[in-house]
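Quick one: structure for this chain?
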Amino acid sequence: MLLEFIRENRTELIRRTQEKVRTRSAPRATPQEIENGVPLFLTQFTDLLAATNGEQPPIRASGGSATKHGNELLQRGFTIAQVVHDYGDICQAITELAGDQAKRLSTREFHRLNLCLDNAIAEAVTEYSRQREQDLADQEVERLGFLAHELRNLISTANLAFQLLRGGTVPIGGSTGAVLGRSLTGLRDAVDRSLAEVRLASGQHPRRRVLVAEFIEEMEAAALLDARARNLDLTVAPVESSIAVEADRELLASAVSNLLQNAFKFTHARGHVSLRAHRKGDRVLIEIEDECGGLPPGKAEELFRPFERRGADKTGLGLGLAISRKSVGVNGGEIHVGNKPGKGCVFSIELPIAA
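Got it. Here's what it folds into:
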């Protein structure tokens, strides 16, 4: 009776469920979830209910099992919260419609309904967890593959340059020496990024008082060498001595270093990069301005995606800006990028000022 009731009243059940989904406060419903998701959820819920009754499900697009139902929903972009709430809304709609039509559902049928709901949610949650673990594992394999490839290329280049220099046929101050220097710098940057990732993953981010003027002075020392190696000018503005932030110094240094390396990498030859820090109300801004030529409209936010690389120079993993954003985030700050079309970009780290 229950299964027949659901099949006969499918249109009304969809309407009622859509109304419940549309008016709930959280998770907020999407148009796709309301228009396409609810009918799909009801179809799969009917299949699951038929399976508990020993029937052959009439629709087997997802293979007929609760796990594959959950897999299909999650593959279509539904969050686990949407899956759980939408299944619950369907059950409520069934119960309410049965009451409105004075249809008496037996205790056994209510038990089947609740059992089906329980199985659907449990299997969807299990499948979601499995998929997430698999996605994380795939991302880690991809990241390690990129890192190994980058390290191998840098080591190979450094080794070739070293062999030429050791033979005495070329001077250390020439182009070959510059190649060796860039390769070693690249190796250092790759290791620094990996250490920052490890520190982020550890979940231990001790914050201490950091005087911004001293911090910027430390950043300047290493950045000047990188700028000279690329034939670029670096300007560092004086910083008010009393300004301080509470931060994990190593992660903050990693973020600023990544932004500087990014600026040096994309600034045109003989161009200019500036580093400055100043107070803005109850915040501190650390800004790195480059001369990359600017960004196409709408491309600023894409820079912070993992493995996103811009410009003609495709060296590196494209992880630097993504790691910088995470590093600043755990310090209670934010990173913004301002675009100067035809000229360059300004990357800003915004942190709460320390008392």
